[in-house]
Design brief:
Rossmann fold; 2 domains; 7-stranded parallel beta sheet; 16% strand
């Protein structure tokens, strides 16, 4: 009997990184792939991105509607409660052998909590990372404690998962899954992007993706306005905006994007979701990713382009030399742009190495999951204590 491996995706961001793993699992003869889609994938406001999954040829076993119309803390808390109930019901129906999740979003936290209560082992991808400006940080570490296998993007993240008390024998550094075969993808040409997206590329081109810093109250509007003000100063530059995920105050940013593009239609364009292929294709032809999205940290360095990381949302992540950190003030953002286009910084981009790239990670994930299931190791796990002499006081 084939092993039933259930993968959950809740947004365009995690799907883009999970797709190579889904491809790998779908061709494995001893695996029955189950796919649950939830969160913003099922929302028309966020582009009904589940259709992209279906267009990629994957059968969706469960669609869990949990996204409420409110992005307030109360609304998100209610979403989490509904998600917990809905995932419990879905797991009872599908009866997977193991659940595979990625990242740190609140929908994923609810899914893993339901799996934990239903006595289902969990394999967690992208644990051990730090994003000090987001509520996701605590969710990620909580997911780690409810998981049984851990696949981290770097060795530093692996050590952090072990520091949380996980047995080193269950923690594997595999690189970022979305980068495993990125160089083998046939990306769209500039002509194809112009035709399908209507982007008018200019002398310089910037991809902007900015999300609320969810551990800060009522800061996103001012911070994003500061960014827009500096962007407006850039001459001969095409601005390509992608909108936010379902985070607190995300609608504030999306409305600001709409207003800006309406006023500056000749030099800017916006998209609810580009999808994985088009997003990666656009990265070929832009000078930088600007904002505070993880894509500027994880994917952009593989294209030898710069990243301006604004504010604290991604504070704490391992970062390549191609990333310029700045405060969310006009002066700091303006200085970051000056650094970005300096000849010295441009020379560094030619030799930049992405710390998240690692060959063979996808195969290792599949291999370790199958080993775990065949070994019938059960759900009980101890707390791995570090040598007290290693703790700095």
């Amino acid at each position: 009997m084939n092993e039933k491996i259930c993968v959950i995706t809740s947004s365009r961001a995690d799907y883009g990184l999970l797709k190579p793993l889904l491809d790998e699992l779908s061709i494995c003869e001893t695996v029955e792939l189950q796919l649950i889609v939830t969160g913003s994938h099922l929302s028309p406001e966020f582009g009904h991105t589940y259709k992209e999954i279906e267009n990629d040829g994957f059968a969706i076993n469960g669609k869990i509607e949990i996204l409420l119309s409110s992005d307030s803390p109360v609304g998100i808390s209610k979403t989490m409660g509904l998600a917990l109930i809905s995932f419990a019901e879905e797991f009872d129906k599908l009866k997977p052998d193991i659940v595979v999740v990625m990242g740190d979003r609140y929908e994923i936290f609810s899914a893993v909590a339901a799996a934990h209560v239903n006595l289902l082992p969990v394999a967690h991808i992208s644990g051990g990372e730090v994003t000090e400006g987001a509520i996701d940080d605590a969710f990620r570490h909580s997911i780690t404690k409810m998981s049984h296998l851990h696949f981290t993007a770097t060795e530093e993240y692996r050590r952090r998962v072990i520091q949380l008390g996980e047995n080193p024998d269950s923690v594997f550094s595999v690189g970022e899954t979305g980068l495993d075969n990125i160089k083998d993808i046939r990306l769209l040409t500039k002509t194809e992007l112009k035709k399908t997206l209507g982007i008018r590329f200019d002398k310089r081109n910037i991809l902007i993706t900015f999300h609320p810093v969810t551990l800060e109250a009522n800061t996103c509007k001012k911070q994003f306005q500061n960014l827009l003000s500096v962007l407006e100063e850039q001459m001969d530059t095409q601005l390509i905006f992608t909108k936010t995920n379902a985070d607190t105050d995300g609608r504030v940013i999306n409305q600001m994007i709409d207003d800006y593009v309406e006023r500056n239609s000749k030099s800017s364009v916006s998209f609810t979701s580009l999808g994985r292929l088009r997003y990666l294709s656009v990265l070929q032809f832009v000078d930088a990713v600007v904002g505070n999205s993880s894509s500027g940290i994880v994917e952009a360095p593989s294209f030898n382009i710069g990243t301006i990381d604004v504010g604290d949302r991604q504070k704490g992540r391992v970062k390549a030399q191609s990333i310029i950190n700045c405060k969310p003030t006009k002066a700091s953002i303006r200085n970051a742009f000056e650094s970005l286009f300096s000849s010295r910084f441009q020379r560094t981009l030619e030799k930049v190495k992405n710390p998240y790239e690692s060959e063979g990670g996808l195969q290792k994930i599949v291999e370790k999951i199958q080993e775990y299931l065949k070994g019938n190791k059960g759900l009980k796990k101890g707390f791995f204590d570090l040598d007290i002499s290693q703790v700095v006081t």
